[in-house]
Amino acid sequence: MSNLVHLHSHSSFSVFDGTGSPDSLAQRAAELELPAQAITDHGRVSGVVEFHKACGKHGVTPIHGMEAYVQADDLKKAAHLILLAGNQEGLHNLYTLSTLSEQNYAYRRGCITRSMLEKHHGGLVMGSACIGSEVGQMILRGDMAGATERARWYLDLLGERYYLELQNQNDGQPNQDHLRFMHGIIEIGEALDIPVVATNDSHYVCSIDKEVHRLVILMGNKGDLLDAYAADLSILDRRAFLRKLRLGHEVDVKPYVDNTMGVWRLLQDMGVENVNPCRKSIAMPQYQYVGTRANARSMPPVERIRRICQASLKVYRTHGTFDRRQPSPPRWEPMTDEQYATYRDRIEHELHIIDKTGFADYFLIVADYVRYVKEDLKTLVDLVQPHVGTRLYALPDLEANQPGFDNDGRSGGDHAGKVETSLLWA
């Protein structure tokens, strides 16, 4: 087993930035006999389930993480920060921070803030990230005092769960910015007694994938970053990684590579091997009736859908439209008993499937969204009929056509259409 764990690695879920699939990432770690492998995609955790399953298949322990973007008032652009889930609490905080970042756009991307980290850091291990981190940006602009204070803030918040990342991104020739970054990180680590850990910031799996990665960068209209990605950003073995880190200076980098195992042991102590993002069941939201009718409040969701659809079908049978207030369509012919029975049986068939799969609450919630868009926002909702395999996907009027329910402020809309596409929402 290799004495190396890659703690900063991207997959294809880092859109237009990473190229390797989560499965290929896990497979490469297994080939190199690494005890664990991290996934840290930009600003999102979309790949963790696929990565978790792949690591199980290849016999590698997954470390679920994210490279977050941080909004900082004293920086001109978003800074990077590595978040690793050490236990289930950390995984949920990872999800929370990813969600919060999507609600806080700065520098044209979703960003977290340090106030968010103060509330949601439990179970997380954090790395200072690359040269584009808060600490890295301050080092490059010559503000060592500011970089030290920023590292101290994270140290005070996280204690042993914070480490500084050391990188030497070169393409075979020394890169002066990265050498300055390396020396600054080492200096801060020694001053504050923070572990310094070597990472490669991998964006693809093998060295031969470099050209593919270059094309992906160009496809993402980020050609100005090609020089920044000139280094070998693959999942390197220990020997190749040491060789890359040593270029251009005389610092002994072996201890910093060894420190990757220190972070791995910390994660093990926290319970990282028990972290599981795969749900045994689908987590569905629950529909909450807010009206005044007691029988409606206690009614099972599937029964509520049944009554809405049955009432809507009766109105359509009589009027040829889902709104009693609208005149019947020209040349409209009443629905025959045979047609009525066909639609009624189809409703029961689909309700059985909806109830069995646990989607009843989902249907009611989406119906409420559609009603709000149509009636409150006065916006046309276009449902593409050929691509929906159900007759219950359109809502005429949640309450007006429903015997035994009050209106609750929901006004009736202009609901006309074919019965097979307008029983639940339209």
Order of helices and strands: HEHEEHEEHEHHEHEHHHHHHH
Shape: elongated
| Alpha-carbon Rg, integer | 28 Å
| Strand order, largest beta sheet | 1-2-3-6-7-8
Helix content: 40-55%
> Residue ranges: pLDDT <50 for 5 or more in a row?
381-389, 393-422
Number of helices: 14
Return the average pLDDT rounded to an integer.
85
Q: How can the largest sheet be summarized?
A: 6 strands, mixed
Distance between the termini: 59 Å
Structural class based on helices, strands and sheet pairing:
alpha/beta
Number of strands: 8
Percent in strands: 5-15%
What does this structure look like?
The chain is an alpha/beta fold. The protein contains 14 helices and 8 strands. Helix 1 (22-31) runs parallel beside helix 2 (48-58), helix 5 packs across helix 7 and helix 12 runs antiparallel to helix 13 (337-357). The chain is elongated, with a radius of gyration of 28 Å.
